[in-house]
Design a protein that fits this description.
Length: 93
Amino acid sequence: RDLFIMWLRAKRPDVRLKASALAKMKTALIFISIGICLFGFMGVQGSIAQAEEPGLMMVLLRIGLSLFIFSCMLSLGTAWQYLRAVQKKDAAY
């Protein structure tokens, strides 16, 4: 998606593609989900090494992965927004 947006910006310098609120939310959600996954993974490794129940950490991993998948879907949506902005600019000519 990011390579696609960079390509659009390079191809069409006349169209200003500003970051939308949804794109900013998507970026924040990706960072949060990666943090949750890393925290869950570190906890799972520690729990297994100590022979404890890793239940909470597995839940964190699943939540982090679910948020990451959701943010990937948002990424496709924001790519669609950018593509539509370029098409609207073409229609205005």
